[in-house]
């Protein structure tokens, strides 16, 4: 299985809403004691391996994520792909799962769909919406607010548990056990 976290490379983006996928991959690398696996520059990403599974952080910037995913998928002949990404249409802290579907304007998903098709599992991590539609770019590229930051570790840990469960169980089982409809901020 190839587990991908979407995000943007570089220190300016590390703690932004758009990088929640990278944050989950970082935690999975730590939990799984995954080793940096390849420095193959054609992958355009950081690739880690544990057991027979791969973790990937594409370093192509969000809009070209599919290039990195497709290169790793093709080279290692991987069938099952899981993509962890931010989702504006879900409230902060929500976690939902689905296979296939549209990209909803998310450029990382759009790129992935174009390169490998839509038939991959999505771990949708709700980041909420900005007040005005014209603020989407600045919103996704901004850091989480202080209340959200208080819950980030717990949320990421829960997402990691779900992904770990997905390695051994069906999407339906994982979805019924790990879907969070609305996270309660205190």
Automatic annotation (TrEMBL):
Enzyme class: hydrolase
One Pfam family matching this protein: Pept_tRNA_hydro
GO molecular function, one term: peptidyl-tRNA hydrolase activity
EC number: 3.1.1.29
UniProt site positions, description: Stabilizes the basic form of H active site to accept a proton: 86
Segment forming the signal sequence: none
Principal localisation: cytoplasm
Keyword flag Cytoplasm: yes
Reactions that this protein is recorded to catalyse: an N-acyl-L-alpha-aminoacyl-tRNA + H2O = an N-acyl-L-amino acid + a tRNA + H(+)
Positions bound to tRNA: 13, 61, 63, 107
Any single GO CC term annotated in Swiss-Prot or TrEMBL for this entry: cytoplasm
Residues annotated as the enzyme's active site: 18
Domain of life of the native organism: Bacteria
GO biological process: protein quality control for misfolded or incompletely synthesized proteins; rescue of stalled ribosome
Annotated site residue numbers, Discriminates between blocked and unblocked aminoacyl-tRNA: 8
Keywords, comma-separated and alphabetical: Cytoplasm, Hydrolase, RNA-binding, tRNA-binding
Its biological purpose: Catalyzes the release of premature peptidyl moieties from peptidyl-tRNA molecules trapped in stalled 50S ribosomal subunits, and thus maintains levels of free tRNAs and 50S ribosomes.
PANTHER family referenced in this protein's UniProt entry, alphabetically: PEPTIDYL-TRNA HYDROLASE
Family: Belongs to the PTH family.
Complexes and interactors: Monomer.
The protein's name in its UniProt record: Peptidyl-tRNA hydrolase
């Amino acid at each position: 299985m190839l587990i991908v976290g979407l995000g943007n490379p570089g220190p300016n983006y590390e703690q932004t809403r758009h990088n929640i996928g990278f944050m989950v991959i970082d935690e999975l690398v730590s939990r799984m004691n995954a080793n940096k696996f390849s420095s193959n520059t054609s992958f355009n990403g950081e690739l880690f391996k544990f057991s027979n599974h791969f973790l990937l952080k594409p370093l192509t910037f969000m809009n070209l994520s599919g290039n990195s995913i497709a290169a790793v998928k093709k080279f290692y002949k991987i069938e099952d792909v899981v993509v962890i990404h931010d989702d504006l249409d879900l409230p902060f802290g929500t976690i939902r799962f689905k296979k296939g579907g549209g990209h909803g304007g998310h450029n990382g998903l759009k790129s992935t769909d174009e390169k490998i098709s839509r038939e991959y599992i999505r771990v949708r991590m709700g980041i909420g919406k900005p007040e005005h539609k014209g603020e989407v770019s600045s919103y996704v590229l901004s850091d989480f607010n202080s209340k959200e930051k208080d819950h980030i570790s717990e949320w990421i840990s829960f997402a990691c548990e779900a992904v770990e469960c997905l390695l051994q169980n069906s999407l339906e089982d994982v979805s019924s056990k790990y879907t969070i409809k609305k996270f309660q901020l205190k």
